[in-house]
Amino acid sequence: MLRSPLWHRRVAWAMGGLVLLWALAYALVPVVLKSQLEKAVSQKLGRQLTVGAVDFRPWSLELTLSDLVIAKAGSLAWGWKTACFPQGRPS
Predict the structure, then answer these.
(1) Mean pLDDT for the stretch of residues 54-63
(2) Which among 30, 32, 34 has a CA at the least distance from the CA of 69?
């Protein structure tokens, strides 16, 4: 039976862990962020916040919020169609 060197196995495990972490971030961050953002901002503002969609790309650390709406008194609302927050500082 041939065994690969120890460092090959360690690199394979590290790469597998990184892929798993990326997959979990891609799947869980949008769901958790949307619910927590709506709950926390609505509570702080005293007005309902609705987020249409959250898109998170863990490989580029890009976050996009779509159809962000903050309700006004009397059930009127204003908001943004898309807000994108890329990694780094705005230029």
Answers:
(1) 88
(2) 34
